[in-house]
Each structure stands twice: as structure tokens, then as C-alpha cells.
Amino acid sequence: MSTTAELMQAAWDATLVRNFEPTKCLLCNxxxxxxxxxxxxxxxxxxxxxxxxxxxxxTMLHSVQVHCPAQMIGDRACMTLLQEREIRExxxxxxxxxxxxxxxxxxxxxxxxxxxxxxxHCKGWIELTGFVTSFVCPVCSxxxxxxxxxxxxxxxxxxxQTLNSFTSDTPSGSNRGKPQSNPTVDLDQLxxxxxxxxxxxxxxxxxxxxxxxxxxxxxxxxxxxCHIFCEECLINTIKATLDENVEVQCPAFVDDGQQRCxxxxxxxxxxxxxxxxxxxxxxxxxxxxxEGSFTxxxxxxxxxxxxxxxxxxxxxxxxxxxxxxxxxxxxxMIHVDKSCEEYRAEIKRNGEEELSESAIKVLLEKREAxxxxxxxxxxxxxxxxxxxxxxxxxxxxxxxxxxxxxx
Length: 407
What we know:
By secondary structure, the chain is of the alpha+beta class. It contains 10 helices and 24 strands.
């Protein structure tokens, strides 16, 4: 599934699942060659890209829940919703940003107790339930303090307010060159960090696992929980997890050490932390787990191929999405451009030919037969003198020495 990274994308975990064989779009009825259509993950209906994009854009005029456009029995429509990753892959960058804004605006207006993230330009928000003093933005992963109405990572409210008061009262430039144990948070820097593959710590800290000092930009902030670790501890956690699972849990403990943080390390964080060879093993492990989770999965019969598919209904063959070889499910074999009957006949014929070759070899070894020195035709001697004449080319020779016969 090509490099292992391509293998991951081409299998069922790909952003868009493409058709494995020629078909027709269920909306416009246009012919779709292999990999020209999209199989919706949750209902397996197949459409061309153009019809799906048009369906999404029309739906966005009044809603953000995009239904499968297929018509089922009678006039009843398919009630399956397109997945967000399918919508993201089908739309252009600008169209998808409009879709995201539509989703956020609609959800935020429908929530009675919604609170917007304080990071400039961030579209994140949450709906509060009960009494809380802070929240982690689901979009930029920054922790928002509701008591101070500010962002002050790893500082208490008192520390932040004291520092904020001090910096606002100090004349501009008077503090330059002096070290600060608790620098103020640069929101522009936070915004830049949210766009990076790995979010780095913007001030010195300590790794909660090994308790070593983590210098500025020397650690990693996990995006979904904001816990900070040194790279070595995170890498060791990932490697240890892969022996049993593919979901790497944040190694931090919360609630005064009573329980493990439930956050899952993002795939892009894992990719950036591991070496290429280690990440390829992680991807392969993900594929194995994904394949094992489907009861109707079938692996490609090509030796060493990692491809597999999920079967839908009664099918006799499938084309591997990785090596593109046609697999026959009836024979459990690969016989390209041959029917099952033709393939079985060829196997039988090859077996008979192999048997004949073995028998000839035995006759030659026992000197019960020889090959004509001139045309290599097989000659079997049933009796008589040493003088032999080939029936094919009429060459005369001595049986015992294969030398030319002399009159």
C-alpha cells in the first residue's frame, strides 16, 4: 500500500474510498472507470466527484448535514450522512473553509451556554455544562481561563494577574535583557504554534514522566490536552504502546495522579516524533488493526501485498486497491484474463507436462532412452543391435556411444 505511507492512504483508511471496478454514478448515470468514483463509507453508494460536490454546496445553503443523494426503494432517500473527512477532501480549500465556518456558526448559535475561544482569529468555542473555570479550545488547543477571561498557560490566576499588572506598570524597554521566570503569553506565537506539526513549549518546563528540565522549544505540547513532555519520553510511550495497540494515550496522570489522561496523541504528532522506519511500522500496525476490525475483510492473494478490501454483498472477485491485481474469490486464486475453468484446465495440463518431463528424465538416467544427437528427439530402444536410425531426421548413430554410424 509504493511506500508504506501510500499504502495507508490507498486502503480503507484513505480519506476518500475510490471504486475498485468500473461502475456508474447513481445520480448522473455517467460511466466511472476504476478510481474515478467515490464510495461513501457509511452506505457504500457510489457517485462521481462532481455530483457529490454539487450536493454539498447546495446543502450548505440551508444546513451542514449533507445526506447521501441516493434514492432508495420508491421515493425514500438514503438517510446516511457524508463524513466530515469526505466533505473536506471533495471541496476546494476555500469552499471547505466556508463549510467549517458554517458549521461553527450554526453550532455556536444553537448552544445556549456557548463560550468563544479568546485566541485572536480562532473560530473555536465550547458549550459549558455546570461550573467550570477553564476550557481547552477544540480548534487551537489553547487553555482559556474563564475567571480571568485570558490565556495564561501553566500560571495561576494570581500569578498571571500579578505579572500582567507588573508588565503594564513598567515603562516600555526598562525590562529588556532581564530574564523572566514567567514570561507573558504571546498570542501571535500561540497562533503560529497551532499551525505547526508539533506544538513546542514557549517557556521552560519539566517533563512529568522523567522530571527532567525541558528548555524552551525543547518539549512537545500535546494538542488535545496541552500536557508538555520531552521528546524522548513521548517516543518511548509511542513505541511501548505499539506492542499492543495503535491508539497512543497521553502518558500524563490527572486528578492528583489518580487516573491516566484519556487524550489520544494525534497521528501527525506521532509521525513527526518517530523515525521514518518506525512510522512505517506504526502505519502497518494500523492497517492490521483496521483489517482485523472488519468481519468481511478479504486480503489480497498477491504474495507480500498488504492490500485488502471490505466486501459488500455477494461478489465473485475484487481488484486490489494496492497492486491492482484481480482476485478471484471462487477459486481463491489469481488468474488474470482467464476464466475459472480455463485456469483449472491450465493447472491440470501443467501438471501432466511436469509428470511427463519427470518420466523422460528417469528413462534417460537409466539409459532406457537417448536423445538423437542431431535433432534431440527422444529415442527408446526396445532391442536389436547398436545401430540406430532417428525416425524424424534419419540420422544414424551408435546407441552405446552416440557417435555417427559408419558403414
